[in-house]
Amino acid sequence: MSDSPSDAAADTGTQAFVEHRELLFSVVYSMLGSVADTEDVLQETWLAWAARNRRPDAEPIDNPRGYLVRIAVNEALARQAAIRRRRETYLGPWLPEPLLTADDAADTSVGAESVSIALLVVLESLSPLERAVFVLHEVFGYSHAEIAGIVGRSPAATRQLGHRAREHVHARRPRFKADPQVQRQVTERFVAAALGGDLRSLLELLAPDVTMSIDGGGKVPKAGMRAVRGRDKVARLITGLAADQPGELDIRYRQVNNDPSAVLFAGDSPFAVMVLDLTPEGEQVRSVYTVVNPDKLSHIER
Questions:
Q1: DSSP of the chain, one letter per residue?
Q2: pTM of model > 0.85
Q3: Residue 13 pLDDT > 50
Q4: What tens digit of pLDDT does each residue of 101-115 get?
């Protein structure tokens, strides 16, 4: 017995969703900075997409990719209010959930186009709509006319949103990408100095106005409740935390949001993810982002 037209449409719809799931994940994660929320949005996107394809009177979709991106982006925008309310009561600094990415930048696995932790932090200061336009245009290369159709605004309004977002982002984070090899070397030296309690080496590595944010979500008391600024304060905080480390830590150097980073394990459990943001000269650290909230590390595997 041959499949009914609705069954065939459902199979085609499933294939299209699977084919574009990695793109959808990267777009939504860049908008939300949360793996768990991204997975929830993709589930809602799938339900809406599957329901549409089950309708017997549904017209064929010429551009499944565009249709799916539109659903996912609008689902992410609808979720933003709840996410922001949750973050208003978050204890201590909030950082994006770290996402392990492939070592090969040309790899097309999930997160291959994810933006850096440092940029995600800046994107938090945009309005949800500004962030959506910035991500779609600057990261994924959509034209403003295409974005207008996705977010339901005119091309002129979309272009203005993009211009405002771009000016804001570039004012807080000028275009700069550290050489991956240099970033890996600095990260290794930093971790060795931090865990070894080498205050002098830390002071040499840190920029004068360095900031350190530790995201413990209120579940790791020693994480602190606010970011620390200044070379001396950051260096002493790091050496103090290192002195209280929970026994032997296994250090793995992995790609996190496409940046060479340090992933620390205590036994088989992830203990911390540390991402460094370097100065344009590339020799000193201007920001230290450390995630120790166990809820944000649950998807990290050895």
A1: -PPPHHHHHHHHHHHHHHHHHHHHHHHHHHHH--HHHHHHHHHHHHHHHHHHHH-TTPPPPS-HHHHHHHHHHHHHHHHHHHHHHHHHT--S---PPP-B--SSTT--STTTTPPPHHHHHHHTTS-HHHHHHHIIIIIT---HHHHHHHHT--HHHHHHHHHHHHHHHHHHS-S----HHHHHHHHHHHHHHHHTT-HHHHHHHEEEEEEEEEE-TTSSGGG-SS-EESHHHHHHHHHHHHHT--S--EEEEEEETTEEEEEEEETTEEEEEEEEEE-TTSSSEEEEEEE--HHHHTT---
A2: yes
A3: yes
A4: 876 544 434 444 568
